[in-house]
Every structure is written in C-alpha cells, then in structure tokens.
Amino acid sequence: MKRRNFVSLLAFALWTGAAFGAEGRITHSDLAEIRQVIHRQIDAFRRDDAPGAFALVSPGVQHSFGTPERFLDAVRIAYQAVSRAANVAFLDLLVMSGEVVQPVQLTDPSGGVWLAYFSMQRQSDGSWRMNGCHLAPPARPISA
C-alpha cells in the first residue's frame, strides 16, 4: 500500500508539470507564503467561500473547473478532509523533480488523520498558488 501511495504521488507530481525550475530556490519567504496560501484556502473552504478558495489555485486549475462554485463542489465531494479540516499541521516542504510540494497533515471532523500533498506553482508575478492536491487516506495499523 505504501508503494502505491508513493507511485500515486510521483505520478501526480509528474502530471502537474514542473512549477519550479532547477535554477530556482525556495526561500524562507516563499515557504511562509506557500503555507499562508494553504491556510487561506482551508479557511475559505470552512466559510464556503467559493470565490476566495478559487482565487488561490493556479490558472490551469481555474480553467479546468471553470467556476468557483464547481471547484468548491468538487472539493466538498472528493476532499472533505481538506474542506473541513479540524486541525492542520505543516510537514517539511518537498521538491520532487522540480515540483514544489507542501505536505500537510490534516485531521478531519471525525478524528481521521490524512496527508494532503499540495502542489504549488509560482506565478509570473512571483506569488504562489495551488496547482493540485493529492489526498492520502488515514493510515490503518495492521497487527502482525
């Protein structure tokens, strides 16, 4: 199962394309902005603020969904742990094949712990937006 999750994450990173050139670097300021963008989007989801949440995703994601309402509806259905996160904890930022990925541990309202991998994309104005999210279900211990 772990291998499948890793393969899914790797495929996700390759699918979204390189948002971060090899010549670039992530600064402390970038890291703070990336985390702020994610916090702002999660807060927008909690308030059911479709335009606010939609404004924080990349133009490509916006184009894919078309409207803020469609985007919010999709998140509510497929990413409930993100849209209704009771607790948010940022893990160490990853750069995979040039892709900037911010892992976040989320606790859903029922206490389930999830890992969300937010693909981040630097915009032409230097700001950061989300370019996708891979949500890994809560781990289930297996007794040996």
Can you give keywords for this protein?
disordered N terminus, single chain, alpha+beta, Nuclear Transport Factor 2, Chain: A, 5-stranded antiparallel sheet, 24% strand, 144 residues, globular
- The fraction of residues in strands falls at 15-25%
User: Which descriptor suits the 3D outline?
Assistant: globular
Beginning-to-end CA distance, first to last residue: 16 Å
Number of domains: 1
What is the name of the CATH architecture? Answer: Roll
Radius of gyration from CA coordinates: 15 Å
**Derived structural class:** alpha+beta
The portion of residues assigned to helices is 40-55%
In N-to-C order, the SSE pattern is HHHHHHEEEEE
The CATH topology name reads Nuclear Transport Factor 2, Chain: A
Runs in which pLDDT lies below 50 for 5 or more consecutive residues are 1-23
Mean pLDDT across residues: 86
Number of helices, counting only DSSP H or I runs of 4 residues or more: 6
CATH class: Alpha Beta
Largest β sheet strand count, sense and barrel closure: 5 strands, antiparallel
Number of strands: 5
